[in-house]
Amino acid sequence: MFIYFFNSSSIESHHFLSLYLLLSLPPESGVLRVPTRYILPPSQRPMLGSSSGTDTITLPVIDLSLLHDPLLRPCVIHEIEMACKGFGFFQIINHGISSSVVKDALDAATRFFDLPVDEKILLGSDNVHTPVRYGTSFNHSKDKVHYWRDFIKHYSHPLAKWIDLWPSNPPCYKEKVGKYAEATHLLHKQLIEAISESLGLERKYLEEEIEEGSQVMAVNCYPACPEPDIALGMPPHSDFGSLTILLQSSKGLQIMDCNNNWVSVPYIEGALIVQLGDQVEVMSNGIYKSVVHRVTVNKDFKRLSFASLHSLPLHKKISPAPQLVNEKKSAAYGEFSFNDFLEYISSNDITQQRFIDTLRKNNF
């Protein structure tokens, strides 16, 4: 369950409340200010509106349709290589997922988060292995500070195996989000082939593992926050899987650049964001790095996002590709599986130590 403590003086009491219920309280409850448990230490605050010298940085945007042109494909592969080396991140346009599928998915998510809290909370669970779970914050059982976020996560591939477990309300949810999940699964296969090719590996290097792999759809809602300069929607972290394909309704994502500066990712109508995960960092033997990112919140409006997290099968181990290990560069990481990551986050605060840091060898 999701514990938020309130009373009339300190906004503290023993109720299992989601962030949405907190924000639905009347003005006299005192939630016109961020409750104490959401306030970040000064060193971790987002410093919105400040100039860090990175505002003018150009982040990569790649036209994915050009991959299908044999003459242009090498140029696109090179663009992907440069983006992966420079940022572990890029945006894609002309990616093949129709605007109607995207719009329908966002509409279904809006309807879900607008449901009464007592209905959503029936899907609540502390168990990270639960295939469908509603929650709030990042990992509320471990978070020292809570994060300004409600979410529904569900396994999504193979769709027929999991969709009956998804929310039945709103009635359109399974159909609309299911179509988006299937489209992102196909897109992920196309992207992982291009990334493998950019590393000098066979295009089908991970074909079997990807087809049998896991897809977790994290549908996020970041409500309007009364004091966005002292809170975050999600803390700095990297994703565990191969790739994360992110759909966002508005600006809010920030990535950390090579100089450890936070860079805001611009919102591009119709674009999707591709983020490298820990599995690609390990597979590439450190040539590519998983991107550290966080989510800021906004005072004036809520933000929705779909993070489609793709991974090898639950118990399938990934290690540095043999072709990328040689006398000059030995294996820099130990192997791991999606299940290993789940076990780690069940008992550790990953805001204190990234999971991938536990895999690095001393010679790296």
Automatic annotation (TrEMBL):
The keyword Cytoplasm is annotated on this UniProt entry: yes
Pfam families: 2OG-FeII_Oxy, DIOX_N
Keyword Cytoplasm in annotation: yes
InterPro entries, A to Z: DIOX_N (IPR026992), IPNS-like_FE2OG_OXY (IPR044861), IPNS-like_sf (IPR027443), Oxoglu/Fe-dep_dioxygenase_dom (IPR005123), Plant_2OG-oxidoreductases (IPR050295)
Primary location recorded for the protein, binned into one broad class: cytoplasm
SUPFAM superfamilies: Clavaminate synthase-like (SSF51197)
Signal peptide, first to last residue: none
Function: Involved in the regulation of shoot development and salicylic acid (SA) homeostasis.
Protein name, per record: Fe2OG dioxygenase domain-containing protein
Organism whose genome encodes this protein: Capsella rubella
